[in-house]
């Protein structure tokens, strides 16, 4: 019965009605233990069934909190889906699989998940991921969750709406008590009301205890309510026969709910047969129930903790040992009971837990892997293995962004206990989570020495993996020449197979000037290699971006997206999307930069990679600058700069300067643009960056031309000529070709198209060159000759979404005597999310393929397209492709 919950029920019922009408959603019912979450969820389930919805239920169980996918398996099993967690790729893929299956049922569905605070981490990730995607699906996800510090962190990342249940007020509390135990004496009634403090479970349990035993049943009010309720449960259990008590404890410690499993383990503990009949006393006293599938359900989760807390340690160990024997055919469940039964170090169990961690890590269940490794470390007999398991557990915690756990685990590891091969990873984690934060280049030399030690001791594979870990730090930290040479020497000295692409990717990323020519040649040879994995394509594509070969990078990266998404390698996928956004921004393609950056920011937030999300926002800022949206570009740049300066990552401020320079250039503030961009090229400036500057040469040259600062541009170009000769960076070559055009006074000395790089894959630079040449011809009164240049430049800039440059080309064309109307941007009416869907549909992807790419259900994609088509005035995907893809 529900008392005093009218407003909460109205909101919950609205979610059910909305889901029945094709607009699903997720909702969390939260509050303290016993506050009424279960009762509210039960009423939702009853109402949903009565209104024609299918109800699928699951519950988090404390004993299952470390079993990957335990809760999501309960849900999928009820809709006819079985899966091998080791064979699945990630919680996100499993969440999408659940969404697809539920959408195929053909009826509205309520997913009712109780005690989600005890859900294992992968199930929680899958459920919350699913809950955020119920846009156009007839599915409601309602979860109950108990308040607590860990819960706060979980809910903050979940992004689901909540209903908080507070204690009942005096009148509803009195009404509920009178319904449960009418006729209590006024004094006893007052004591129960005072002791329960508006908690419905307290009112029910303490009220019934008072009715049975009088005031003696009411424990001192100084004890927490949960403790008093648990002791009330314990008192009820104490009155039961010994086999029933043992069966209840086994059920409380089990990570499953099958009656046969519990009775078999209890029989081992008791040393005599135990059957379902021994459960009857607990059922008759309503401590637990057994449903038609012979599954055990406890009266309340507090009963589990009461049973476990009141049992002696040796009894708990014996029960876990019995469960381990019963679960011999299920090693992933058995190992946790074996670990719980261990009374001291046991290397065999520790090894099996480490294997469990490996399987969990492969299925991207980092939280489960961390828990397994931490327990394995506790049980380790080998000191070296203990240290390594703690270090590995710290790495798993770092993947989850759990700095507190990383620091706690590292505190148990003395750096002097580590072998040289593992000190680099310890130092890396210590600096990132337990030290003073980013230390610039000061520790790079230490890391390189440690990696060289790995190489010398024959662990080439670990050394190469560590070099790859370090490559992006080398790229962005602006280390000195000596450190870069040291890095390259170690990489070149590694004895690796000739077809191992990792050394190429590492050197191209870490030292793109020093290794540029050789890296470009090898990357070009791999352009059409058949059989490269999605991981290889992604890492090679990022490396190609690092050496300025953005068109080649796109060629390598784009084919990897579908496989990475299907495999659930979201960490790699977000880096691929981030690189595509960066490439598009550097190429002046505002439309593609916007699309890829939005996807990057969304996915980075989903999986907790804040740094990647920040660089994605800078690509959004570049896209806004190129489109002429100065206000948004400046706001995004200012936000990023504040983060970089606070973290001490000053070389990354170069990305902010590039945004500000391009924004000022688009707005016609050419001198300001030159001053901002010029800082990227000044080695004395803290924001100087040796590699990012190579992508901004064309913008700097254009700003110098428009501001009359060619004399200041000349020494910059002179400094870059030998760099271009050394590395042949395609982005630099394209920028220098334009800069030479700007600096040439005599038309006869200007570089012709044949003298420079092939700009076929660099449309923005080609259009900028055409705009400059057309402008010069027009101002030299060669109007007829200027028009083809200006007309082509305007068309290209329009296609790229670089509206300010297109407007300038049109203005020059008008001055030449020819008018060119500004085209209507068909996509202006679309939201950024709709733009993503529209482009993927225009590229020929099916609704299911788009859903897999964006982690949305096909039904949601269909709804988006239903709104997109009339906005663009199209009736088919073919017409959509013509509008979006035909310049």
Map the helices and strands:
Blueprint lengths: L5 H15 L4 E7 L5 H14 L3 E6 L10 H9 L12 H13 L5 E6 L6 H11 L7 E8 L2 H10 L3 E3 L5 H11 L5 H11 L3 H14 L11 H14 L3 H12 L5 H12 L9 H5 L3 E3 L5 E3 L2 H10 L2 H14 L4 H11 L5 H16 L3 H14 L3 H17 L3 H9 L8 H15 L9 H13 L3 H18 L3 H13 L7 H10 L5 H11 L7 H13 L3 H8 L2 H8 L2 H17 L3 H18 L2 H18 L2 H18 L5 H14 L3 H9 L18 H11 L2 H18 L2 H14 L19 H17 L3 H18 L2 H13 L16 H11 L4 H8 L3 H15 L4 H9 L2
Parallel strand pairs: 1-4, 1-5, 2-3, 3-4
Antiparallel strand pairs: 6-7
The largest beta-sheet arranges its strands as: 2-3-4-1-5
Structural class: mainly alpha
Tell me, what is the CATH class of the largest domain?
Alpha Beta
* Low-pLDDT runs: none
Considering DSSP H and I runs of 4 or more, what fraction of the residues is helical?
55-70%
Biggest β-sheet: count, sense, barrel?
5 strands, parallel
- Average pLDDT works out at 85
CATH fold annotation of the largest domain:
Rossmann fold
Taken as a percent bin, the fraction of beta residues is: under 5%
What gap, in angstroms, lies between the N and C termini?
Answer: 64 Å
Count of individual domains: 6
Can you put this structure into words, describing what you see?
By secondary structure, the protein is mainly alpha-helical. It folds into six domains: 7-164, Rossmann fold (3-Layer(aba) Sandwich); 170-218, no CATH class; 242-289 and 296-400, no CATH class; 512-607; 628-738; 827-885, Arc Repressor Mutant, subunit A (Orthogonal Bundle), CATH 1.10.10. The chain is 65% helix and 4% strand. Strands 2-3-4-1-5 form a five-stranded parallel β-sheet, sandwiched between helices. Strands 6-7 form a two-stranded antiparallel sheet. A hairpin with a 5-residue loop joins strand 6 and strand 7 (296-298).
């Amino acid at each position: 019965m529900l008392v005093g919950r009218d407003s909460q029920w109205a909101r919950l019922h609205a979610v059910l009605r909305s889901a029945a009408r094709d607009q699903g959603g997720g909702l969390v019912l939260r509050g303290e233990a016993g506050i009424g979450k279960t009762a509210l969820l039960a009423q939702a389930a009853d109402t949903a069934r009565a209104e024609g919805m299918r109800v699928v239920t699951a519950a988090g169980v404390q004993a299952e909190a470390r079993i990957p996918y335990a809760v999501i398996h309960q849900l999928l099993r009820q809709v006819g889906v079985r899966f091998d967690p080791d064979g699945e790729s990630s919680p996100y893929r499993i969440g999408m699989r659940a969404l697809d299956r539920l959408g195929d049922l053909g009826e509205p569905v309520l997913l009712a998940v109780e005690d989600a605070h005890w859900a294992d981490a992968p199930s929680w990730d899958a459920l919350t991921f699913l809950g955020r995607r119920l846009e156009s699906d007839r599915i409601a996800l309602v979860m109950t969750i108990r308040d607590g510090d860990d819960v706060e962190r979980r809910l903050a990342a979940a992004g689901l709406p909540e209903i908080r249940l507070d204690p009942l007020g005096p009148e509803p509390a009195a009404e509920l008590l009178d319904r449960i135990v009418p006729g209590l004496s006024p004094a006893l009634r007052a004591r129960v009301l005072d002791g329960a403090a508006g908690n419905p479970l307290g009112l029910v349990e303490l009220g019934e205890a008072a009715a049975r035993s009088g005031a003696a049943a009411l424990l001192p009010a100084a004890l927490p309510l949960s403790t008093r309720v648990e002791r009330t449960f314990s008192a009820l259990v104490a009155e039961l026969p010994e086999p029933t008590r043992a069966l209840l404890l086994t059920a409380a410690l089990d990570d499953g709910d099958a009656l046969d499993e519990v009775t078999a383990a209890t029989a081992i503990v008791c040393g005599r047969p135990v059957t379902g009949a021994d459960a009857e006393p607990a059922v008759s006293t309503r401590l637990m129930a057994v449903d038609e599938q012979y599954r055990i359900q406890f009266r309340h989760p507090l009963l589990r903790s009461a049973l476990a807390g009141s049992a002696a340690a040796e009894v708990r160990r014996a029960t876990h040992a019995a469960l381990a024997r019963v679960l011999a055919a299920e090693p992933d469940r058995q190992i946790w009971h074996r670990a719980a039964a261990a009374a001291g170090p046991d290397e065999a169990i520790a090894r099996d837990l480490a294997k469990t961690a490996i399987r969990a890590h492969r299925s991207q269940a980092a939280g489960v892997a961390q828990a397994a490794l931490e327990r394995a470390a506790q049980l380790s007999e080998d000191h070296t293995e203990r240290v390594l398991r703690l270090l590995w557990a710290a790495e798993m915690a770092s993947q989850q962004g759990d700095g507190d756990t990383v620091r706690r685990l590292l505190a148990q590891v003395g750096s002097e206990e580590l072998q040289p091969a593992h000190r680099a990873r310890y130092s890396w984690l210590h600096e990132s989570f337990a030290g003073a934060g980013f230390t610039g280049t000061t520790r790079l030399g230490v890391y390189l020495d440690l990696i060289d030690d790995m190489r010398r001791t024959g662990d080439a594979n670990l050394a190469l993996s560590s070099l790859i870990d370090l490559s992006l730090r080398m790229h962005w930290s602006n280390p000195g020449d000596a450190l870069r040479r040291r890095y390259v020497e170690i990489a070149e000295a590694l004895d690796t197979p000739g077809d191992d692409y990792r050394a190429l990717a590492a050197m191209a990323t870490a030292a793109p000037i020093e290794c540029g020519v050789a890296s470009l040649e090898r990357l070009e040879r791999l352009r059409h290699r058949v059989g490269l994995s999605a991981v290889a394509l992604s890492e090679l594509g990022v490396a190609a971006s690092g050496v300025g070969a953005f068109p080649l990078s796109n060629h390598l990266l784009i084919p990897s997206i579908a496989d990475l998404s299907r495999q659930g390698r979201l960490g790699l996928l977000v880096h691929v999307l981030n690189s595509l956004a960066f490439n598009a921004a550097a190429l002046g393609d505002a439309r593609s930069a916007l699309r890829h950056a939005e996807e990057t920011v969304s996915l980075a937030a989903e999986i907790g990679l804040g740094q990647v999300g920040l660089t994605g926002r800078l690509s959004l800022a570049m896209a806004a600058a190129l489109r002429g949206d100065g206000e948004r570009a400046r706001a995004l740049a200012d936000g990023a700069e504040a983060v970089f300066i606070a973290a001490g990552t000053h070389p990354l401020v170069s990305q902010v300067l590039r945004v500000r320079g391009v924004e000022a250039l688009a707005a016609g503030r050419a001198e300001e643009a030159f001053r901002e961009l010029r800082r990227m090229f000044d080695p004395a400036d803290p924001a100087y960056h040796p590699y990012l500057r190579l992508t901004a040469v064309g913008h700097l040259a254009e700003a110098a031309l428009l501001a009359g600062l060619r004399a200041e541009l000349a020494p910059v170009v002179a400094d870059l000529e030998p760099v271009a000769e050394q590395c042949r960076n395609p982005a630099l070559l394209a920028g220098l070709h334009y800069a030479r055009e700007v600096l040439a006074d005599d038309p006869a000395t200007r570089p012709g198209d044949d003298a420079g790089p092939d700009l076929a894959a660099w449309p923005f630079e080609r259009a900028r060159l055409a705009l400059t040449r057309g402008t010069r011809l027009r101002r030299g009164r060669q109007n007829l000759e200027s028009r083809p240049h200006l007309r082509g430049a305007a068309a290209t800039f329009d296609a790229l979404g670089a509206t300010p440059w297109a407007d300038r080309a049109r203005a020059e064309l008008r001055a030449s005597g020819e008018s060119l109307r500004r085209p209507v941007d068909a996509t202006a009416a679309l939201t950024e999310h709709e733009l993503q869907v529209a482009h993927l549909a225009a590229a020929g992807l099916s609704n299911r393929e788009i859903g897999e790419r964006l982690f949305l259900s096909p039904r949601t994609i269909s709804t988006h397209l239903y709104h997109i088509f009339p906005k663009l005035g199209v009736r088919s995907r073919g017409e959509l492709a013509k509008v979006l893809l035909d310049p």
